Amino acid sequence: MNTTATSAHETPVLNVGLLGAGTVGSQVAHVLLTRGDELALRSGVRLRLCGIAVRDTAAPRDVELPAELLTTDADAVIDAADVVVELTGGIEPTRKRVLRALQAGTSVITGNKALLAESGRQLQDAAGASGAQLSYEAAVAGAIPIVRPMRDSLAGDRVERFLGIMNGTTNFVLDQMDTTGAAFEDALAEAQRLGYAEADPTADVEGHDAAAKTAVLASLAFHSSYTIEDVHCEGITGVTAEDVAAAREAGYVIKLLSVGERCGDGVNLRVNPVMIPREHVLGGVHGAYNAVFVEAAAAGSLMFYGQGAGGEPTASAVLGDLVSAARAIALGAQGIPLADYAALPAVSMDDVTTRLAVTLAVTDRLGVLARLAQVFADHGVSISTMQQSEDPRVTGTSLLRLVTHSGRHADLMATVEALRSLPVVRDVVSVTPVETGE
Ligand code: NDP
Ligand code: HSE
């Protein structure tokens, strides 16, 4: 540790190396540059911004930054720092840079869920070997304190499952589609303008960003190491205005849900668009807000809610980690290695118990319902509710909206495939899992 105090009465100085000055990094830099006295009182050390690594030092910034701090030499920033704040994103060269810092014993704060969900174990091991701290509150659900509660506050409990809305962009898009009838593309463009979306919004709309967060949070919740590969992932690009309207009519809202739950001897991790009752706590999460609902054996139900994206909210989580790391460094404390002793295997989606909402376009004639009901019975799948209406698009066709009772996911999907092959079924319009939150 290079923490230095020039006299016995002066506050020691901690050199902070910042990698990235985009949406989040520029806000972190702004606070370090404008609220240094306050942060020094809170952390016991003066947090001195010693360098900011970017791709293009001449690029326009959201906030004014001292030109002399900007550089394209990230390694020089890392080597000069007592603590590194990584807000560049991506896997490489970021992974090598974070490892460089951790291997040198320099603590790292990052918001990079993509990196953590790919190489989290490697980074944790490097931190454990050198005694550095690796902190990443911002990596899951932006400003919401959920990483620390999962890692520390619930360390004595047994987490049974978590359900979360953990991607602000997709929640914003789905919410706009639900409340204003906006088209998918317009809502996405607005989310990008507001700084919620990743540089490439594919990661948001295809569910990869939420899947990465799910892997990161599940690793903490279930004391195991998961990567994004362990998460069943479906995005929202297939969700149509008709699906949203039909769900609304039935009293549901479509949300991109991240779930981690114990399932047999393992854990199922999934991200997919699901219908949830409008009155469910997660049904009332609007805009780019995120929420995580946790069920633990002793604590019972816990709800975490707040802004999941955006420069300032995310910077809040980063700065919280920074103050916390600075306090520990000031005390000479080492990082606490993260155990993955439980090694609970990731269970396939096939074996999960779910319910499905299925919309079928069927020929409107005698005996059709009986034929469909037989297919459900043959697969041991029970129908909970059914609504029939005329299909406004095709004469002589009915739209059937069915919701099943709970069943094994593979059996439910096999039923849908059997329905699809019936001559009376003209189209399987949509298949959406239903999450009742029970
Ligand atoms: P931006 O794309 O806005 O900013 C990225 C910054 O990193 C830019 O300043 C860019 O430089 C710099 N950069 C990129 N690649 C390199 C490189 N190879 N070498 C040096 N500098 C580089 O990203 P965000 O601020 O939105 O996100 C940063 C991280 O925080 C990501 O991991 C993201 O997933 C995470 N995060 C973001 C949230 C958000 O709401 N935006 C919320 C939670 C987490 P230049 O400016 O010169 O191009
Ligand atoms: N693109 C992400 C989101 C940023 O929309 O939630 C926060 O991780």
Automatic annotation (TrEMBL):
Gene Ontology biological-process entries: methionine biosynthetic process; threonine biosynthetic process
Entry EC number(s): 1.1.1.3
CDD domains: ACT_HSDH-Hom
GO MF term list: homoserine dehydrogenase activity; NADP binding
Keyword Oxidoreductase: yes
Gene3D superfamilies reported in the protein's UniProt record: 3.30.70.260, Dihydrodipicolinate Reductase, domain 2, NAD(P)-binding Rossmann-like Domain
One Pfam family in the UniProt entry: NAD_binding_3
Binding-site residues, NADP(+): L19, G20, A21, G22, T23, V24, G25, S26
Keywords, alphabetical: Amino-acid biosynthesis, Methionine biosynthesis, NADP, Oxidoreductase, Sodium, Threonine biosynthesis
Limits of the ACT domain: 357-433
Domain of life (superkingdom): Bacteria
Name of the protein described by the UniProt record: Homoserine dehydrogenase
Organism placement in taxonomy: Bacteria, Bacillati, Actinomycetota, Actinomycetes, Micrococcales
